[in-house]
Amino acid sequence: QVQLVESGGGLVQAGGSLRLSCAASGRTFSSYTMGWFRQAPGKEREFLAAIRWSAGTTYHADSVKGRFTISRDSAKNTVYLQMNTLKPEDTAVYYCAAARSTSISISYAYTVPQKYDYWGQGTQVTVSS
Predict the structure, then answer these.
(1) In 2-129, which residue ranges form alpha helices assigned H by DSSP?
(2) Which of 50, 81, 100, 104 is 20 to 30 A from 23 (CA-CA)?
């Protein structure tokens, strides 16, 4: 059974940094694409970044490009989201998700929640002004 467990959220002041972790278990993820999303109260779930586990290819949403970076550690079966220069509008619940990889590019198909088969429980990030 696939399990994704996020950690690393918390309260941080504007301008600060956090690194979120997503520990993946239950299968081999080399054929998966891993994504990070967030959802603020009253808003839709928003795509942030994704990574092809095997190749390490990444894609970041324009809204976070240059501030957030996705990466993975295959030895630890963990995906990370490094978040720098945080802003109050980054406050949300952050989710890790997994989807089977295909030949379709990340930017074309893997930026919507519906593409993903497995989700973590989420971790709260609160940025104070």
Answers:
(1) 106-109
(2) 104
Q: How far apart are CA 5 and CA 29, in angstroms?
A: 14
Mean pLDDT of 6-35: 96
Does residue 85 register a pLDDT over 90?
A: yes
Percent of the chain topping pLDDT 70: 100
d(CA 65, CA 81): 12
Of 36, 38, 127, residue with least CA distance to 78: 36
Q: Are strands 123-128 and 3-7 parallel, antiparallel or unpaired?
A: unpaired
CA 29 – CA 2 distance, rounded (Å): 10
Cα-based angle 126, 85, 119 (whole degrees, multiple of 5): 50
Q: Count Cβ atoms below 10 Å from residue 114 Cβ, excluding itself.
A: 8
